[in-house]
Amino acid sequence: MVKSLHKRQFGDFQTPDILATEVTQVLQVNHKISPEVVIEPSCGKGAFIRAVLDSFPDSRIIGLDINKKYLEEAKLSISNHPLSHHVTLDESDFFKINWEAILSTISGYILVIGNPPWVTNSDLSILDSQNLPPKSNFQNQRGIAAITGSGNFDISEWMLLQYVEWLSKRMGTIAVLCKYSVARKVMYQVKNKFGSRFSFHIYLIDAKLYFQASVEACLCVISTDYPDNCDCKVYQNLKSREVSYLIGERDGLIIRDTKKYEEWRHLLGHNFQYIWRSGIKHDCSKVMELERIHDNLFMNGLQEKYCLEMDYLYPLLKSSDIGKGATENCRKFVLVTQKSVGEDTSIIENVAPKTWQYLLEHDEYFKHRKSIIYKNKPAYSIFGIGSYSFKKWKIAISGLYKQLKFCLVKPLHGKSVMLDDTVNFLSFDTEEEAKFIFQLLTSTPAMEFLDSMIFWDEKRPITIDILKRLSLQAVAKELGFLKTYFYWTKTVQIPVDLQKQKVTLAKLKN
Ligand SMILES: C[S@@+](CC[C@H](N)C(=O)[O-])C[C@H]1O[C@@H](n2cnc3c(N)ncnc32)[C@H](O)[C@@H]1O
Q1: Which of 152, 156, 415, 446 shows the smallest number of beta carbons within 10 Å?
Q2: How many A from CA of 28 to the centre of ligand 1?
Q3: Is the domain of 239 the same as that of 352?
Q4: 220 in Cβ contact with 175 (< 8 Å)
Q5: pTM exceeding 0.90
Q6: Range of the domain at 354
């Protein structure tokens, strides 16, 4: 336990020698660098020190780490190497050392290499660890947001940004193993601050294989070489020579696959008629979500059975159902206590006394909801609710799943289906309209455009922010269905020639 706590607060995943060697080979072969000085700021047991000694025999090497034992191991491991005199290994804390003083002694091309700690500031605060950057600009939430754009960040993100500062007036390359998401965040910030001074390359790596870690990871190479290469080249692995896709900034957005995006850029727009929503938020699943035993008898997540009126119960499909496309039936029902956000709930007492009694009996569960959104709101309040929730037909997509899988959701048990707050959806009054928009959304142009913007390693890769960038009108135009689109979005008589188009559409659907 003590050991694993220690490992966690120092983000300690030692790199296997084979991976460190592959990294230095990529730098030699693909990037053709020959550094005068190599710095490994958190060198641990020295995998990168050994790899650099073999790949860059002319370089001076500086290795540092906070862990004395690791440094001893590293020293021992190179003691018989003929070039060990090129290496200086010292105990030091990255956040306390005077980097300016060290850097002022260095001239020539620098390589900063390594695998900075894999830990976030919130992990560290849970562990009550002090292994953090200086208070002045890091523990202070405003400072953090200013640096990283968010309150929670990886320590490696901060370290990488420091490395970039070192190269702001020097020539060199940074090559570090880090989370894929960290590499992207750093890229975004560096581009904002330094424009095209640095080029970016990302080589995806299998973190499960090398570190037994379930995270998308990569080798991130940031260099003052090839500075005008605006987009970041992404390779499938360290051995790939072919670029898989180019990440870049377009229209103020970070785009995963700029080539695909440019192909379908004309589909970018707004939907004024069709608004993406997310499902119901109640933060009380044990009480609010129930399984139907039979007729009006239901069982909640506390395994308690209750007879409830159907007035406030609706079929529920969760992210996992939508992700699997299991929309034909529902496993659960959800209590929908309001028709709109903030609506008075006391009316339930008269309309459905058993339901009211059930809510009263579970009052404590509602009072323990942590989110401040429930403060000063009517009892048993929910969020993500409005007239759109009660429309009969929906097109839904799970925000959590790693594929673009839209589902048509029809009413179940004679009622509109509710979706959970990790599901994004559009809603419609009629089946016909829902099917028409479904056809637009699942067309190749729409799917390729959306896919070009999605970073699949994100926890919730498919966001409303991304979905709403797709103009359904532009897709309809692309597919030649513009008139049908206007038929559904404006209350106009359907012209005769459009009747034909509807027939064609019907055929296509079958
Ligand atoms: C992910 S491990 C990688 C070690 C080594 N770079 C490698 O690739 O095998 C992170 C290393 O960072 C070191 N570390 C953590 N906090 C540090 C700090 N504040 N200053 C210097 N090193 C630190 C840990 O001791 C650990 O060896």
Answers
A1: 152
A2: 24
A3: no
A4: yes
A5: no
A6: 277-509
